Predict the structure of Oxidoreductase.
Amino acid sequence: MESPIGFGILGCADIARKFCRAVGLAPNAAVVAVGSRSIDKARRFIADNSLPEGTVAHGSYEALLDDPAVDAVYVPLPTSLRAHWAISAAGKGKHVLLEKPTAISAAELDRILEACEANGVQIMDGTMWMHHPRTAKMGEILSDPSRFGQVKRTNSIFCFNGGAEFLENDIRVKPDLDGLGALGDAGWYCIRSILWANNYELPQTAIAFPNPVKNDAGVVLSCDASLHWEDGRVATLSCSFLAHLTMDLTVVGSKGTIHLSDFIVPFEESAAGFSFGCESWFNDLVSAWEPRPSEHVVSTVLPQEALMVAEFSRLVGAIKHSGAKPDGKWPAISRKTQVVMDAVKASIDNGSQPVQIVF
């Protein structure tokens, strides 16, 4: 039996706690090292997360990248630091699981992708909902023209009310750490869901809605935008640190509609649902729908973050043990997401002027 893929964690960010649990549940992965700028902080993180005995604490990120037991790194560092350390990891031959947004811009992401390609390492971003079996089930419906028809409109919302402490101190509102703000943190999910629903066909134009909310440092706290395709398809996205927790996704086709209210984090870990209406219309009195949208529930043994780790580790294992090539699907999807995000940001910066999307 092949040994599990050894992960090193660069930094002790809050989301890394969730990642540790995911690795513990995945059958083909293990955390072997944690790196921090303080070795004491790395040791505390190992103890607090009950990581296996023998997990090595490193007092620098460089030391972790030099650890021969580390096959892959998980990078939850602030966005402004991700390019440097992802490129450094690739240069050391470490595979890269990179939190989102993957970079400040597509140009910066290109540097990461070039380093990964040059060193033959796998890269994947940490968009966990992509790996839930519900996503695959919905994808089957979307790709069936007899049931769904052609995609016409997609609406995606991710909001949460961060509160006063968050809005004052969280790294996601600091221009030198996560300068993309709500667009980078929440909008990434919205853009990815829109691209997923449209079979990753890039829209032609992005138009930010007027009057985005920014803090005193100029970081976006709330914004909205529309995306437009040449064939008339339209999508809207809404992301905010100021509104109640909402994770809505609606995909409207010529024959059917898919809707779910928890597309990023399911209401329940072991099962996730969505509704699907197909050729619905009104009854004779126009007082009810016929037929009503059907409700679907998809169960999973492992939570979506563990499935993500398992898939990434499978790809890394194939490279390590069988000489396989890195899977280009994942970096291509990351880059498309980043390119659309760049266009939305450019439209925000240019007073809601339309911005052409060039891949």
User: Anything to note?
Assistant: The radius of gyration is 21 Å. The chain has two domains: 5-127+305-326, 130-301+338-356.
